[in-house]
Amino acid sequence: MNTSLFSKTPSVTVLDNRGLNVRNIEYHRHPDTPATNQRTHHPAAV
Predict the structure, then answer these.
(1) What is residue 6's three-state secondary structure?
(2) Cα distances (Å, whole numbers) of residue 19 to 12, 37, 40, 42
(3) Is residue 43's pLDDT more than 70?
(4) Among 16, 21, 29, 32, which is least packed by CB within 10 angstroms?
(5) Domain count, the chain
């Protein structure tokens, strides 16, 4: 599998209060998916 395909996909890491990894989520784009736009959401910006 070509790992460069997934080079700029998002990931989420959840740590507990001791700094230990609780959950790690990695997203991978499908090769047929067109380019995406970056979206940033700020809850305070209403």
Answers:
(1) helix
(2) 14, 32, 26, 26
(3) yes
(4) 32
(5) 1
